[in-house]
Amino acid sequence: MAPIISVQNLTKTYANGFEALKGINLTVEKGEILALLGPNGAGKTTLISIICGIANPSGGQVLVAGHDVVKDFRATRGMIGLVPQELTTDQFETVFNTVSFSRGLHGKKANPAHIEKVLRALSLWDKKDNMLRQLSGGMKRRVLIAKALSHEPDILFLDEPTAGVDVTLRKDMWNVVQELRASGVTIILTTHYIEEAEEIADRVGVINGGQLLLVEDKAALMAKLGRKQLILDLAEPLERLPDCFAGNGLTLEADGSRLTYDFDADNEQESIAALLTRLGENNIHFKDLSTRQSSLEDIFVALVGASK
Asked: Which positions fall inside the ABC transporter domain (predicted)?
């Protein structure tokens, strides 16, 4: 089956010569959740804007369900829902009317039952008759999400959707995302909350300086690039490690009171057992031990740092 989104050699250069995107290649499969991570100015919003038809590329091609986003704008835009970063709403319109109007803009017939369903899912139904200027910032963010879902899109883009919102909205939103994924909607999100990507995404892409550094299955990425560490709090501090432990991934830290050991997750039982035996043979004893595995945030920081 062809991917629902195909990005080929995509570039974007502004009039002042700034290269926002540098040859991006990306495919997104129907029904998956892809998280795009990157620092401010990395190119995330530019990439989303081009796929959604808001900005024009300088080069390359983007296909949505086989349709070119430039040549077949109307067909592709109708398939996409976008939740932008900015809170752009009509302050003097009611919640129900602005969400209904957004559905009409995409050429869909009025469907009050669907609008009600969306508003209830986002805990907005009791605010349906309120004007937007009467809502808090978090509630306005909910309205943006409702507008993006008003026309029943096949693809949903969430550009920093939980930036500056409360924990309740964040939980509500991820519940809605899981329900949408279960119904076959494809979801692409950008976020600064890397723990959200770690929890919800199927695949993770890292973008920096207009270049896509990698796109991989989340579990495979963490298995390949994540580190596992054994942490030993020593019973007695050491001035230095014996020479026989040199080059074994063992590091003395915390003024000689802690040892950390980077180990191979595939052979962890064997390698840890051998290490503990050798420590005991060298009269090095510990009072506590724990293990730690690199998080997605650790991997992201390492990748972005390496690309500078």
From this structure: 5-234
